[in-house]
Every structure is written in C-alpha cells, then in structure tokens.
Amino acid sequence: MRRAIYPGTFDPVTFGHLDIIERSSRIFDEVIVGILVNNAKVPLFSAEERLDMLKEAVKDRPNVRVMSFGGLLTDFARAQEAGFIVRGLRAVTDFEYELQMTQTNKVIAPEIDTIFLTTSLKYSYLSSSTVKELASFGSEIDRFVPEHVAQRIKEKYRL
Ligand code: PNS
C-alpha cells in the first residue's frame, strides 16, 4: 500500500490544494491530507473549521482521508505508516523553503520520501493568503475556492 501524507496549513483549502490532492490520489493508493494545528502562523480558521471544509471538498474521493496533526510531520507520517510526503511547488520562490524542509525531514526520517508536484499553471499564482486578502477587501473569491469555502470566508469577514 503506497500511502502519502499531503500536509499543510490549509487556511483555507483552495483549488490549488485540491488540484494537488486530485493528482496525488491518482498516484498513491491512499492520500491523507494532514492539517497542521499548532503552526506558528495564527490561522483565520480553527482546526475544526479547516477539517470540515477539507472533508467536504474531498468527500467524493474514496482514497483521500483528512486528519489534523500536531508536532512533527515525520512523526505523523510514521504513525500513519505513510512512506511519502507530497508537496506542491508553485514557483521557484517556494523551492528554497521546500528543499530545506525536505532535507530536514529526510535526515530525521530517512525512510520517508518527499514527492513534489508542480501546481497546474492555472493555479500557480494562487495562495490561501491571497484569497483571504481579496475577501477582506470584499472582492469575489469564487474562482479560487469551492463554493462552501467561499461562503465560510465571506462569513468570517462579515463579522
Ligand atoms: O501549508 P504550509 O503552511 O506551507 O505547510 C507547512 C507544513 C505544515 C508542511 C510544515 O510547517 C510542517 O511540516 N510543520 C510540522 C513541523 C515539522 O515537522 N517541522 C520540521 C520540518 S522543517
């Protein structure tokens, strides 16, 4: 069984993330989307909200599960018996951080490999932060996130 973890903050999930999830679910037998809960970043959405939004977004993908985790990614991957970590690369600017993280993970967990998928061109500019910023100024975000996520973001900024 080739099981992979697709980790991230997912604050909130975008079409860019869903593109990576869809493509990795065709490569691996099972993909676990891992939502980091104790990130240094202060998220807009709670871990429960991020979990709900992601579960709804992948509900039609039988080999994708969504879980939250705290602590080290490699500990989570080992606990889930996953041999792979999947990360999306949008642009060369992502590369330095991703390489450093991958090499660190490889030193502490040599049996786990990180696989990079380049984000589809149509989503290469997209990030959760951009979507939140647009929404905070009242701009439409329906092109960037699923309907149920757009709704939740709008509710946050209406408060
Ligand atoms: O969506 P993000 O914020 O780019 O995801 C970053 C994430 C969650 C993959 C990364 O911060 C992470 O793996 N954090 C867990 C802590 C850890 O394992 N750190 C050691 C690797 S340098």
Task: Explain what you see.
- With 159 residues, this protein is an alpha/beta fold.
- It has a single domain, classed as Rossmann fold (3-Layer(aba) Sandwich), CATH 3.40.50.
- 43% of the residues lie in helices and 19% in strands.
- It contains six helices and five strands; from the N terminus they run E-H-E-H-E-H-E-H-E-H-H.
- Strands 3-2-1-4-5 form a five-stranded parallel sheet, sandwiched between helices.
- Strand 1, helix 1 and strand 2 form a beta-alpha-beta unit.
- The longest helix has 17 residues.
- The radius of gyration is 15 Å and the shape is globular.
- The mean pLDDT is 95.
- The site of 4'-phosphopantetheine (PNS) has 9 residues, from strand 1 and helix 4.
Notable features of this structure?
159 residues, globular, binds 4'-phosphopantetheine, 5-stranded parallel β-sheet, Rossmann fold, alpha/beta
Task: Give the arrangement of secondary structure elements.
Layout: E1 3-8, H1 15-27, E2 30-36, H2 47-57, E3 64-69, H3 73-79, E4 84-89, H4 92-108, E5 113-118, H5 128-136, H6 147-158
Parallel strand pairs: 1-2, 1-4, 2-3, 4-5
4'-phosphopantetheine is lined by residues 7-9, 36, 72-73, 101, 104-105.
Order of helices and strands: EHEHEHEHEHH
CATH superfamily caption: HUPs
Regions with pLDDT < 50 over 5+ consecutive residues? Answer: none
- Main sheet makeup: 5 strands, parallel
Strand content: 15-25%
**Rg, nearest Å:** 15 Å
Question: Which small-molecule species are bound to the chains here?
Answer: 4'-phosphopantetheine
Number of distinct helices: 6
Span between termini: 45 Å
In round numbers, the mean pLDDT is: 95
Question: How many domains in all?
Answer: 1
